[in-house]
Design brief:
Largest sheet: 6 strands, antiparallel
Structural class: alpha+beta
Strand content: 15-25%
Radius of gyration: 27 Å
Order of helices and strands: HHHHHEEEEEEHHHHH
Number of strands: 6
Number of helices: 10
Shape: elongated
Length: 362
C-alpha cells in the first residue's frame, strides 16, 4: 500500500513539472530570441543564425528554470491532494506529512542531479558555441577570439613575472612577451623580451622567437644580447595554464578547477573562480531546499488555486535567487570566503527549512 501510494504521488509530480518547465523555458527563450532579432538590421545577422543561437542557449535556460519548475510542481501536487481530500485521507490513514513529501523530494533530487550533469557536460560547450556564433555571425567583432586574451600577466615564481600582449593557449602562442626577474627590493634585475613565445610539443617546452636578454649591472647601464631562438623558463604547458577571462557560465566545474589550480600555482587570486565553482556544486541543494521551503505552504491552501501556487513559487524563487546573487557577488569581489559564498544560501535556508518543519510539526 505504501509503495503504491508513493508511486502515485511521484507520478503526479511529472505533469506539473514538465508543464512549468516548458512554459517558463519557452517564455525566456522567446524573449531572448526577440531581443536578438533586433540585430537583423545590422546587415550581418540572419534569421537562421538567431534561431541557431537560441537553440544552442536553450539547455542553459532550461537548467536555470529547473528549480522554479520543481517548486511549482511540488506545490501543485500537494495543493491538489489537499483540495481533493487525498491529503487528509492519507494523514488519517497513519501517514505523516514528511512521508508524503518523500516521493516528491526523490523526484526533485533526480531532476537536480540530471540538471547538474547537463550543466557540467552539455551547457558549457554549447554556450561557447553560442558565444562564438554571436560574435562572428550575429554581432561580428573582428577582435573576438574565445581562446585568446590580451594584456596577460602571470606570476611564474616569487620574483619572476611574465607579461604578454596577446595569448592564445589553444594554438600555444604568445606575442610581445616579457619575462622580468626582480631582486629582493623588487627592482628589475634582468629581462627577456621576445616577439613570440610558442609551445614546442617535441621539446615539451616554451620557445622564445626573435628576442633579447637584457641585464642591468647598475642604474645607468643596460646590456642587451639578441637571439633568434631560446628555451623559455616557463615550466607550465598550455594545458596547465588558464589565462582566459571567460565567464563562469561558459565553464564546467572541471574547467573552473583547472583555472583555480593554475591561479594558486602562479600566486594569482582565485576567489572569483572558486566562488563560481562552489555555486555550481551547490545548485542541486539549492533546488531541493527551495522546494522544501515552499512545500509546507501548499498544505495551508484549502482550495485549488493555480495562480496562488504560481505566485508563491515566484516569490520564494526570486527571494532565493536574490540572496544567492548578492552573496555570490560578495564572494566574487573577495568580501567573503568563496565556500561561504557558494554554500551560504544553502546553509541559511536549510536552517529556515529545519525550523519551519519543526514549528509546523511536519
Amino acid at each position: 500500500m505504501q509503495h503504491r501510494l508513493f508511486r502515485y504521488i511521484a507520478k503526479k509530480f511529472w505533469g506539473p513539472f514538465l508543464f512549468a518547465l516548458g512554459v517558463f523555458a519557452a517564455l525566456v527563450v522567446l524573449g531572448d530570441t526577440f531581443e536578438k532579432l533586433k540585430t537583423l538590421s545590422n546587415g550581418y545577422s540572419t534569421l537562421g543564425s538567431v534561431l541557431k543561437y537560441s537553440l544552442l542557449t536553450f539547455p542553459s535556460w532550461l537548467t536555470t528554470i529547473v528549480p522554479v519548475a520543481c517548486l511549482l510542481a511540488a506545490i501543485s501536487v500537494i495543493s491538489e491532494m489537499v483540495t481533493n481530500g487525498e491529503w487528509t485521507a492519507c494523514v488519517a490513514g497513519g501517514f505523516a506529512p514528511r512521508q508524503l513529501f518523500k516521493p516528491i523530494v526523490l523526484c526533485i533530487i533526480l531532476v537536480a542531479v540530471i540538471s547538474l550533469a547537463v550543466q557540467e557536460f552539455i551547457v558549457p560547450p554549447l554556450n561557447r558555441k553560442a558565444t562564438l556564433l554571436y560574435y562572428t555571425k550575429i554581432k561580428p567583432d573582428k577582435n573576438f577570439n574565445l581562446n585568446a586574451e590580451s594584456d596577460v600577466a602571470i606570476k611564474l615564481s616569487g620574483n619572476e613575472m611574465l607579461y604578454a600582449k596577446w595569448v592564445d593557449l589553444g594554438k600555444g602562442v604568445m606575442r610581445d612577451v616579457s619575462i622580468d626577474t626582480y631582486n629582493d627590493v623588487w627592482d628589475i634585475a634582468s629581462q627577456i623580451v621576445a616577439q613570440r613565445m610558442v609551445w614546442d610539443e617535441k621539446q615539451n617546452a616554451w620557445i622564445f622567437k626573435t628576442g633579447m636578454r637584457r641585464t642591468f649591472p647598475n642604474e645607468n647601464e643596460v646590456l642587451d644580447e639578441k637571439f633568434d631562438s631560446a628555451v623559455a623558463p616557463v615550466n607550465l604547458s598550455p594545458d596547465q595554464m588558464s589565462v582566459s577571462r571567460t565567464e563562469g557560465k561558459l565553464l564546467s566545474v572541471r574547467e573552473l578547477g583547472k583555472r583555480i589550480k593554475f591561479f594558486k600555482q602562479t600566486g594569482l587570486a582565485s576567489y572569483v573562480a572558486e566562488t563560481q565553482r562552489q555555486a555550481k556544486l551547490s545548485t542541486p541543494f539549492v533546488t531541493l531546499i527551495m522546494c522544501l521551503l515552499g512545500m509546507p505552504f501548499a498544505i495551508s491552501v484549502r482550495r485549488k488555486s493555480k495562480i496562488l501556487n504560481i505566485l508563491a513559487s515566484m516569490v520564494i524563487a526570486f527571494t532565493f535567487w536574490w540572496l544567492i546573487s548578492m552573496i555570490t557577488s560578495m564572494g566574487e569581489n573577495g568580501y567573503i570566503n568563496p565556500f561561504l559564498a557558494g554554500w551560504g544560501p544553502v546553509l541559511i535556508f536549510g536552517a529556515v527549512v529545519f525550523f519551519e518543519f519543526k514549528w509546523l510539526k511536519l
